[in-house]
Specification:
Layout: E1 2-6, H1 10-19, H2 24-27, E2 31-35, H3 92-105, E3 112-113, E4 117-124, E5 128-134, E6 140-145, E7 147-150, E8 157-158, H4 166-171, E9 176-180, E10 194-198, H5 202-211, E11 217-221, E12 232-233, E13 240-242, E14 245-249, E15 252-255, E16 260-262, E17 267-271, E18 275-276, E19 286-287, E20 300-301, E21 306-307, E22 309-310, E23 314-315, E24 325-327, H6 336-352, H7 354-357, H8 362-378, H9 383-386, H10 395-410, H11 429-436, H12 438-451, H13 454-458, H14 464-485, E25 491-492
Parallel strand pairs: 1-2, 1-7, 2-3, 7-24, 9-17, 10-11, 10-17, 11-13, 12-25, 19-20
Antiparallel strand pairs: 4-5, 5-6, 8-18, 14-15, 15-16, 20-21, 22-23
Helix pairs in contact: 1-6, 6-10, 12-14
C-alpha cells in the first residue's frame, strides 16, 4: 500500500502515529508519506513568521496572545502528557512544542516532508490517487498513492458574512475597516478605535477580551451567549452587548433589534465568524450552495459540512472505493489530539482489514450516516448547518469510544495494549470531567496566576495521573471559593 497524509498538525500526526501502531510485519511493505506545506510541525500552533496583509491569506490564524481555552491534560494524545511545569492553560508555543515532542518521541519525522504543498489530488480507478506536489524549492512532481488521508485542518478559508450596505459603508471613510480574525494579531493595533467584535466563539471572545482595554469603545455582537452545552456565558467585562448585525447605511450599523450605531471616527469590525469547510486541492470534493438529496453518493460540501462521510472519516462517493479517501480532524467541539488518534486507529485498521472494519457496501455506510444525522435532528439541530460539531453533552466522548470499540470488536489485528481491554472506554472519566469543568478550572487558573499560586498547583506533575490530580486540586479550590462568594455555577464567567 502507498498512503499519503496531508497536514502535520494534530490530525496528521495523530493519524501517522496510529498507523504505526499496526503490527510491523503487516506494514513493512507499506509506504506512508506525510506532506506539510509549512516549515514545521504543529499546524495552526506554528506561528506565521511574516503574516501578510489582506487579501492574501496568512499561514495560520494564530495570534501572539493565544492560549488554550481547555486544560492541556484533556487535549493530549493518550499516554503522552505535556512537559512538566507547562501552565494548565498554555500559550501557543507550549502547544506547538508538544506536537514536535510527540513526533520525535514516536519516530514520526522520517515520514514527514516539510515545505511540500499538495496542489491537486485526482482519482482514477486504474491509477488511483495522483497527487500534484510542489517541493521545497518550487519543483513540481506527480506521485501515485492507493489511499489519501486529508488532515489539513479547517481554519484556512475565512467565512465573511454578506450584509447589505457593508461595502459602501467601508468605502465611505478611510478609517473604517472590516477585518476577519484570521488577520488579527496584536490588540494595540486597535487602540483608540471604536471596535465591533462579531461572534462569541473562541476567537470572538479572545478579541473582545484583548481589545477592550485599548479600544475607545468595544461593542460585542452575537446571537446568544450559551456554550455548546447550553450553559450561559456572562458578558465580557467592559464590552457593550449588541445583537447580530442586520445591515449598514452610509454612516452606521443597524442591528437585528432595529438599533443603530453611528460610526464617526476610526472604526473596526472584527469578525469572529469562523471558517469555510473547503479543500481546494481535492478534486472529488464539490463545493455546492446546498447539499443534495440524502441518498446522494457524490462527495460535496456546503462549506459547513462535508457529506457523505462514514463516521466522519471515510468518503462515501460513487467514484471512490470506501477506503480510498479519509479525513482526520473534522470534528469540532471536541478535544483534538485524542479524537485525532481515535480516528487514526479506526482508519489504520480499516486500511489493514477493510472487509472486517468497514461496512459491506456504500449503501450500508450511507444508511448509518443518515441514522446519525437523524439523531442530530432529534436534538433540534440541522446537521447540514452545525456541520461536524458535537453539540450534545457527552457526544464527543461517545464518538471516540465508539470508534475504538468498533475496532476492538471487528479488527483481526491487535490494538496497543492501552486500548486492548474492551471493558475500558477509550476516553477516561477524568477527560470527560475535565472538559465539563473547563470554565470553572480556567477561572481557578487565572485566579491562581493573579495570586502567584499557579506553580504550586502543578508542581511535580509529570505523569498523566499527576496532571489529573492537579486539575482536581484547582477545581476543588475554585469551586469552594465560588460557593463561598455565592457565584451562580450556571454562568460561565470570564474572570476569577
Amino acid at each position: 500500500k502507498r498512503i499519503a497524509i496531508v497536514g502535520a498538525g494534530s490530525a496528521g500526526l495523530g493519524a501517522l502515529a496510529a498507523l504505526q501502531t499496526l503490527p510491523e510485519d503487516l506494514r513493512s511493505s507499506w509506504t506512508i508519506d506525510l506532506f506539510e506545506e509549512r516549515r514545521g510541525l504543529g499546524g495552526i500552533w506554528l506561528p506565521d513568521e511574516s503574516p501578510p496583509p489582506p487579501p492574501t491569506l496568512p499561514e495560520t490564524p494564530l495570534y501572539p496572545l493565544l492560549r488554550t481555552n481547555t486544560p492541556h491534560p484533556t487535549m493530549t494524545y493518550p499516554g503522552f502528557p505535556f512537559a512538566p511545569n507547562t501552565p494548565l492553560y498554555p500559550t501557543h508555543d507550549f502547544v506547538q512544542k508538544y506536537h514536535e515532542d510527540f513526533a520525535n518521541r514516536f519516530n514520526l519525522t522520517s515520514a514527514i516532508k516539510l515545505n511540500h504543498s499538495i496542489l491537486a489530488a485526482t482519482y482514477q480507478a486504474r491509477s488511483k490517487w495522483t497527487l500534484s506536489i510542489r517541493g521545497n524549492e518550487g519543483s513540481l512532481k506527480n506521485a501515485s498513492y492507493d489511499h489519501l488521508i486529508v488532515a489539513s485542518g479547517h481554519n484556512h478559508y475565512p467565512y465573511i458574512p454578506e450584509w447589505d450596505g457593508a461595502e459602501e459603508w467601508e468605502r465611505g471613510a478611510e478609517d473604517r475597516e472590516i477585518v476577519h480574525s484570521i488577520y488579527y494579531r496584536e490588540p494595540e493595533r486597535y487602540a483608540g478605535r471604536t471596535v465591533i467584535v462579531v461572534g462569541f466563539s473562541a476567537s470572538g471572545s479572545d478579541m473582545a477580551i484583548q481589545v477592550t482595554p485599548v479600544a475607545r469603545k468595544l461593542y460585542h455582537s452575537y446571537t446568544n451567549a450559551s456554550d455548546p452545552l447550553g450553559r450561559l456565558r456572562e458578558p465580557i467585562p467592559g464590552t457593550i452587548q449588541k445583537p447580530r448585525i442586520s445591515h449598514f447605511d452610509s454612516n452606521g450599523i443597524i442591528f437585528t433589534d432595529g438599533s443603530r450605531l453611528g460610526t464617526s471616527g476610526p472604526t473596526t469590525i472584527l469578525l469572529g465568524t469562523g471558517y469555510q469547510l473547503v479543500v481546494p486541492f481535492l478534486q472529488p470534493l464539490v463545493e455546492v450552495s446546498q447539499l443534495s438529496h440524502r441518498r446522494s453518493l457524490h462527495l460535496s460540501t456546503n462549506r459547513r459540512y462535508i457529506r457523505a462521510l462514514h463516521r466522519v472519516i471515510f468518503a462515501i462517493d460513487q467514484n471512490l472505493p470506501l477506503d480510498a479517501l479519509a479525513f482526520v480532524g473534522l470534528p469540532v467541539w471536541i478535544a483534538n489530539a485524542p479524537s485525532d488518534f481515535a480516528q487514526g486507529l479506526f482508519l489504520a485498521h480499516a486500511l489493514a482489514a477493510p472487509h472486517k472494519v468497514l461496512p459491506t457496501s456504500k449503501e450500508e455506510a450511507l444508511r448509518e450516516l443518515e441514522k446519525s444525522e437523524d439523531d442530530v435532528r432529534e436534538h433540534g439541530n440541522d446537521p447540514y448547518w452545525i456541520g461536524h460539531r458535537f453539540a450534545t453533552e457527552g457526544s464527543a466522548q461517545d464518538y471516540q469510544d465508539d470508534l475504538v470499540a468498533h475496532v476492538q470488536r471487528r479488527s483481526p489485528y491487535p490494538l496497543p495494549s492501552r486500548f486492548a481491554n474492551s471493558s475500558k472506554p477509550y476516553v477516561e472519566k477524568w477527560r470527560r470531567a475535565g472538559r465539563n469543568e473547563t470554565f470553572l478550572m480556567r477561572r481557578g487558573w487565572l485566579r491562581a496566576e493573579e495570586s502567584g499560586l499557579d506553580k504550586e498547583f502543578i508542581q511535580g506533575a509529570v505523569t498523566e495521573q499527576d496532571w489529573v490530580e492537579a486539575m482536581e486540586r484547582i477545581t476543588r479550590w475554585q469551586k469552594e471559593y465560588e460557593e463561598n462568594e455565592g457565584c451562580d455555577s450556571r454562568i460561565l464567567g470570564w474572570t476569577p
